[in-house]
Design goal:
The chain is built from 3 helices and 28 strands. The protein is mainly beta.
């Protein structure tokens, strides 16, 4: 996939979901082998079948949830040490993203499907507002949620995902020629500030009653976004090993050299300056806020893709960082 303007819109459109397409190629080629023992800071927690795939994971305390292909939902109550399959009312389409807040969950996916669960167990479908694929969802403590996806699709909910409204964006003020970019990740802050990333290295933002505006633009597509508690430090990952950081709440962005050219789709950051980024055949780690990077040298990482990262937090601040991806695999990663 390319978010490069000079390649033209048709080329960019042909590259929709490069992260998923590249993963499909790996699966089809049989290169997603999980036979190797864990090494280099990666521990195998769970492995599904070769046709399984997990696309997102979220935690609240020690409770966690992961979603993926064919309506696959896994849950944990012990910080990610063990996972169980949770029944889900839809089995023929992929769930691409999930959000968990205040004990409530929202999942989104193919053909614009949205499900919400007030207890993260009893799922109910919300009325369909779009046929576009939804690739990310975020929700704050007030139950204000945003879902984003293909061709600039943005939905908003004010009732924990039970009902949604399509958001109109004046793309002529954000992208060249008013092109509608695919949007790949989103964060909804408790104060109502919403930040999204996507094609053309786009970082864009809105607030209550405000119009969307671009904070950053470039050449590559951005797939992952992590906002450190407090909102000042932010990280975004993308094509060609892209890793951007902001120390002023997203106003300005700095590009870092991660030492990899891999597509990086997931990112998790801590207030202590630890940053993990995952993607296709690569996971990279920084302990100094992005100033320097090192790869996780594990065959578990090099032979597969891991689309998303999240961390649980237990008693005494004990945490576990997990990555989810190919073959329904869940890895524990060392920070």
């Amino acid at each position: 996939m390319s978010g490069c303007r000079q390649h033209g819109r048709p080329a960019a459109r042909a590259g929709l979901l490069a992260r998923v397409a590249a993963m499909a190629v790996l699966l089809a080629s049989g290169s997603v082998s999980m036979a190797a023992p864990p090494s280099g800071g990666a521990k195998l927690i769970r492995q599904g079948t070769a046709h399984d795939a997990l696309y997102d994971v979220a935690f609240e305390g020690e409770r966690g949830i992961a979603v993926g292909a064919f309506g696959n939902v896994l849950v944990t109550a012990d910080g990610g040490a063990t996972w169980q399959v949770q029944p889900f009312p839809m089995k023929h389409l992929a769930l691409m993203a999930v959000a968990m807040r205040e004990g409530k969950c929202i999942a989104v996916g193919q053909t614009g499907l949205v499900y919400s669960a007030a207890d993260c167990k009893t799922w109910k479908a919300s009325p369909s507002m779009t046929k576009s694929r939804l690739l990310a969802v975020g929700v704050n403590r007030q139950g204000v949620a945003y879902a984003v996806g293909a061709f600039g699709t943005i939905l908003k909910s004010s009732d924990w995902g039970q009902s949604w409204a399509v958001q109109t964006v004046d793309w002529s003020t954000i992208t060249e020629d008013g092109a509608e970019p695919h949007l790949y990740d989103i964060h909804v802050a408790d104060d109502g500030t919403v930040t999204a990333v996507g094609e053309f290295e786009l970082v864009m933002r809105t607030g209550e009653g405000q119009q969307w505006k671009a904070l950053h633009k470039g050449e590559r597509s951005l797939f992952g976004l992590s906002v450190v508690e407090g909102g000042k430090k932010m990280y975004a990952t993308g094509q060609s090993g892209a890793l951007l950081s902001s120390a002023d709440g997203g106003v300005t962005w700095e590009s870092h050299k991660t030492g990899t050219g891999a597509i990086l789709t997931g990112v998790h950051a801590t207030a202590q300056g630890e940053v993990l980024a995952s993607g296709i055949n690569a996971v990279v780690l920084s302990r100094d806020g992005g100033a320097s990077w090192s790869p996780l040298n594990s065959k578990l990482v090099r032979n597969a893709w891991y689309q998303a990262l999240a961390a649980s937090e237990g008693a005494g601040g004990k945490r576990r960082v997990v990555a989810v991806g190919a073959g329904g695999t869940i890895l524990e990663l060392d920070l």
